[in-house]
Design goal:
Length: 397
């Protein structure tokens, strides 16, 4: 029992001591003065601003585009037979000049048939020459000359002009006219066995190679023109309004650091529903020292056109698409603008009152109503600005 009484006395003493210490601490705190609260200091920012001023600005139009061949054609066989190659390999990528023989469809059978028919035609002409001497002496020398000009291995010469109706009847009765035009038809058919290049170009696709057999109308290859190309440039509707057919354009390759001159040849009369752009086609000639290849992406720059009553500012001045900051009574204020045109680095705008102070730099972590002081690089207080200004950055909140 004595041990229990001792424990109770010890615990009670500890509780009394802790309570006494707490009471003394509260008493001492109550006797001290409350600390003074420092008034919050409003942070002042320094911004670069310029008065709004409108003028007429000549702004160029530029946009990227892809080169396409001026012509792209399927080469088809107009006769059936075996494909015979030429000096130009019938392979993808082979180059050729306008008028070069690309390939031939086996022509020997048709050529021999034409020679046989020409021989019969010469025989018919020889039979009428004595009759011309007696009945039509004025035509005898002309047709004798025509007879001598007909060669078996060459195309028929032009038929002599016939003005007399009676003489025309005579020729028709001897089948001279029908035989002549029948041979001309066969010569045309023979010419279709040889396929020649319609332009300077290259094979972009080869379906049949030399030695293969093709039917009439069979696709042999696809060819594209390489000496002249076109570039379709999609322009915003506003920019396209300044470009007209016949305008000159400068084409530039940034990677190759080369330029070419082109001419606007077409302008789409519709807007692409996906991109809301209007296509403008530029024709460009490839040069030997600066060759162009279909499929390249280049940049086109069109002549500038005047835009009246606008102000040009950096693109990053605007935020939330069409909002800017102006300085009124030493504080920032948001205002909406009308963006007339966008370029790669600048905006042409309207919608603000002239002489309003437009903030010409992007700000970060600021809100409308923030106290600011205008400070431009040319200000005499540049040293104070460097010491006191807080940093401005590239985006707005």
């Amino acid at each position: 029992m004595k041990n229990i009484d001792r424990r109770i006395i010890i615990i009670g003493s500890l509780i009394f001591i802790v309570g006494l210490a707490y009471g003394i601490m509260k008493f001492l705190i109550a006797q001290g003065e409350e600390p003074r609260m420092r008034p919050s200091k409003e942070v002042k920012r320094y911004v670069k601003a310029e008065p709004v001023s409108y003028k007429t600005i000549t702004s160029p139009v530029s946009a990227p585009g892809r080169l396409t061949p001026l012509a792209e054609v399927d080469l088809v066989a107009e006769a059936s037979g075996k494909i015979i190659g030429s000096d130009i390999p019938l392979k993808k990528g082979s180059r050729f000049k306008q008028g070069d023989v690309l390939f031939t469809i086996y022509p020997d059978e048709v050529a021999l048939a034409i020679k046989s028919r020409k021989s019969r035609f010469l025989n018919t002409l020889a039979n009428i020459l004595p009759d011309l001497t007696i009945d039509y002496p004025e035509q005898e020398a002309t047709f004798r000359k025509f007879f001598n000009s007909v060669k078996i291995d060459k195309q028929l010469p032009p038929f002599p002009e016939v003005n007399s109706e009676q003489f025309r009847i005579f020729l028709s009765s001897r089948d001279i006219l029908s035989e002549y035009y029948g041979i001309k038809q066969d010569e045309l058919r023979l010419s279709r066995h040889t396929v020649k290049s319609p332009f300077d170009g290259t094979y972009s696709e080869v379906i049949m190679e030399a030695g293969a057999y093709t039917n009439t109308g069979g696709r042999v290859a696809k060819a594209i023109r390489t000496d002249v190309l076109e570039m379709e440039v999609p322009l915003e509707r506003f920019d396209a309004g300044w470009v007209e057919v016949g305008d000159e354009a400068t084409i530039r390759s940034e990677k190759r650091n080369l330029t070419w001159e082109g001419t606007v040849v077409r302008k789409n009369q519709f807007v692409d529903p996906n991109t809301q752009s209007q296509g403008v086609a530029i024709r460009i000639k490839s040069q030997q020292d600066k060759p162009l290849l279909a499929g390249e992406y280049l940049n086109a720059k069109f002549p500038g056109h005047p835009v009246e009553e606008v102000m040009e500012v950096p693109r990053n001045v605007a935020f939330n698409t069409n909002e800017v900051f102006v300085v009124e009574d030493g504080r920032l204020k948001k205002k909406n603008i009308d963006i007339i045109k966008r370029t790669e680095e600048a905006l042409l705008l309207r919608g603000l009152n002239e002489d309003e102070m437009l903030v010409m730099e992007p700000l970060i972590n600021v809100s409308e109503g923030t106290k600011v002081e205008i400070h431009n690089a040319s200000s005499s207080s540049e040293s104070t600005y460097k010491q006191n200004k807080e940093p401005a950055s590239a985006n707005n909140k």
